[in-house]
UniProtKB/TrEMBL annotation:
Taxonomic source organism: Heterosigma akashiwo
Gene3D superfamilies on file: sav2460 like domains (2.60.60.30)
Annotated InterPro entries: Stress/Tellurium_Resist, TerD
Pfam families cross-referenced by the UniProt entry: TerD
Protein name: TerD domain-containing protein
Domain TerD: 13-149, 203-364
Amino acid sequence: MNHEEGTAISSKIIEFGLSWDFFEGMEPVDLDAQAVLFDQTGKVVDCAFYNQLSACDGSVVHSGDNRTGEGDGDDETVTINFESLPQHVKVIAIVVTAYSGGTFQAVETAQAQLREVNGSTKNTISNIALGCKGQHTALILSLLVRSRGGGAGGAPWRCWEVGELADGRHFQDCLGPLRDAVDRHLDPELVGERVLSLERTFEMRKGDAAAVPAGLDRVRLGCGWETPHTDLDLDASCLMLARDGRASAEWTVSFKQLQLPGVKHSGDNLTGAGEGDDEEISVTFSEVPPNIHHLAFIVNIYSDDRSFTEVFDSYIRMVGPNDHVLARYPLDGKIQSRGLFFAAFSRAAAGQCWTFKAVGAPLRGKRAVDAECMADVVAVLGGGRGGWTS
C-alpha cells in the first residue's frame, strides 16, 4: 500500500477480509471488525458491526461475529458498495476491537486483505498486517476516503493504512484517536463547521464542538453519573457569563436558584439513584439575555473531602425535539477534583447562533458559586485551562 497517496480503488464494490489466530493454550478473545462512516465534517453517520450488520441501507454489510477465530479463510468481512453510498459519506474507518474481555496479547497472527469485487471475481489489491499486539484492545486499521473531484488518476475512493493502536471495546470508546485520524483527511474549514443533527446523535469526546441547528430554540441538558456511595451529593449548575467571562452568583442556575431568563434547573437529586438523567437543565436560547455569551454546565460534589474518583459513568447529553439526543459526551473517570466542567454553550459573534463544546475540565470548589470554582470556569472559557476559544 502506498502510504503517501493511499491505494486507489477502481471497483464499485470492495471487501475487507479479516482473519486472526490465537496462541495455543490461550483463551480466544472475541475480536470484532467495525466499519464506521463519517460525513464531511467528521460526524459519525452510521456503523456496521456485530450487532448491526448493515449500514446506510445495505451499502455497507458486515458478515457477522466470529468469536473464536477458528477455521480457514476470513473470520469476518466487511463489504462496501460505493455506488449506493450516500454522497454525504466521506470516510469509512475500519476498526478492530477486543470486545468481551482480554487484549491483543492473545493474538498470534492477524491480517486483512482489501479486495476489489467484480461479479464473482475478487482481486486482492492490498495485504495489511494487523498490529494486534500487547495490552491494547482496539486498532484503527484503515480509512477509505472519498477523493475530491475524482482524486489522482480518477479514482473516486482511496484506502489509507492507519495501524494505530488504541483502547476500547467498541469504536465509541476510542472516538478520540479515531476522529483525529479521520479529521486529517477532511477539509479543516468544514470540520470547524460541525452542526448537530436532528436525526443522529453526535458522540462527542473532549474538545469536540458543534453548532446548534438553526431554528432549534429549546434543548435540555441531562447530566448523569453513578456512585457506590449513597452519601455523595452531586449538584449540577449553569453559570451564565458575559463575553469577557464575568461570573457571579446572581447569574448562576442551581438547586438553590432554579430559574433565570432562558435557563431552568430540574431540582436536586441527592443520591444519583434511578434510571435516566440525574439532573436536567433546560435552555431556551431566545430568552437568554443578549449580554450573556456563555452557558457553562458544571457539576460539583457538595459532600466534604470527596472527589470525582468516587464517581463513574458520568455523562452530559443534549436532548432536543421528540426526545432526540443531539449530542452525548461521556467523561472519563480520571478527574480527581471535586468539581467538573462538563460542557458549555457559546454564542457566536453574530449573536444568534450557539456552539456546544465538550470541555471535561477539573474545577475547585464544592459549589458553583464558590469563588475558586468560578475562577476556574472563567480560566477555561478564556483559554487558560482547557483551551476554550470562541
